[in-house]
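Worked Example 4.2. Consider the chain below.
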Amino acid sequence: MADLRSIAQELYGRPLSEFIAARKEAADDAGSKELAKQVKELRKPSAAAWAVNALARERAELVEEVVELGEQLRDAQADSDGSRTRLLDRARRDLTRQAVDEAAELAKASGGTLSGPAAAGVEETLRAAMTDPDAANAVQDGLLVATFAASPFEPVDLTDVVAIPPEGARPRTKKVKQGPTQLERKRLEVAEAKVEKARRKAKTAADELESLVEERDEIQAELAELRKKAKEIEREIADTERALDRADTEADKAEEAERSAQEALEDAEAELERLNA
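Applying the procedure from the previous section yields the following structure tokens:
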């Protein structure tokens, strides 16, 4: 006779639209009143919880990769390895995005859709599974009725989010710490290439700055020399203008003297002509 866990595994593996009818049928076929009662109490999962359960069943390797990446992140954080933590954090974002896309495809294949809020719930739950081993076990067990989030200060509360508590921690081979993974190496190569490119650009900019500073200094020196010459020219102009003023004054006096002499000459000539008459 089937037990509650096996019945739950079958129920939560059905398309979400079939859950209510399938639960009634399973309760009717339970074989005992107590088991039937327990089956009837199994809660229908939310759309987001159903999607996470579907990932655990249909994309088990992807979910296992999510859990393993979470272990690597916790190790890196415990070792205060900032560089590795940053690389793994970028990998975490890529992996959760991929998992959410896969969840949407599974929902579509079952005749449903994954709304924006449901997709956010899937991502939040997978992130929590990366931070907490118990949460990871619950996700991989595939019997969620609701999604959940991690707390930075407390363990994940699974009280109301699983139909049946997991039977225990899933056995995982303890991985010996190794060097960067292929994904990390690729990201490291890209980062190093960006650093080298930035270094070359910085060197070019520094050389150009040095050249421009030298050119600026030369221009400033030339400008100072021109300003000095300009002051000298201004003094020469002022002296020349004063000399011109004096020359104008002397010329005016000379013109007046010339007029007076001309008038005296004319008077003398007139007197002479009168005497000769």
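The mean pLDDT is 86. Residues 45-168 form one domain. Compare this with Example 4.1 before moving on.
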